[in-house]
Q: What sequence folds into this?
């Protein structure tokens, strides 16, 4: 079993982008999908998301209609007020947060709506599902700011 050191991971991820892209393009989908659940778990044992929170600090999930309904109810806000207060439409027509970092991210890197968070947040970083292979551009982008994606890709290529 190859040990993947996490020091200097961002630089290593940048250096390995072509390698990752090549791997993702030629990967045996079924073989990789079988490996993902264990690698996903292993990565989360090695990386403390609360010490990073780069996803919440720099990017926004999509807020789909069920997310908006659930979160606005939790916050005891009308959906329209929730949208006007926190969200804007991106170039793809998806609702995203108006500002970075995410307005629900606390100074301690905890999410104030964690139990109600959007589906994209719940699924991120997609290292236990076929999105890793199907949406390769997203995987490559995520590997540059998420140490878990970096870790999983490194394990897959070694």
A:
């Amino acid at each position: 079993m190859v040990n993947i050191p996490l020091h200097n991971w961002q630089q290593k991820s940048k250096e390995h982008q072509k390698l990752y892209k090549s791997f993702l393009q030629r990967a045996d989908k079924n073989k990789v999908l079988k490996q993902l659940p264990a690698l996903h778990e292993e990565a989360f044992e090695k990386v403390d998301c609360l010490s990073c929170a780069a996803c919440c600090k720099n990017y926004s999930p999509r807020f789909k209609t069920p997310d908006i309904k659930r979160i606005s109810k939790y916050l005891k806000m009308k959906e329209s007020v929730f949208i006007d207060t926190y969200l804007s439409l991106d170039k793809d027509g998806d609702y995203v947060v108006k500002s970075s970092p995410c307005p629900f991210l606390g100074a301690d890197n905890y999410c104030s709506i964690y139990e109600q968070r959007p589906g994209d947040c719940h699924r991120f970083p997609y290292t236990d599902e076929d999105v890793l292979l199907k949406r390769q551009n997203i995987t490559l982008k995520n590997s540059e700011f998420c140490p878990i994606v970096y870790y999983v890709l490194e394990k897959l290529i070694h």
Notes: Residues 18 and 25 are 11 Å apart (CA to CA). The radius of gyration is 17 Å. The longest strand covers residues 87-89.
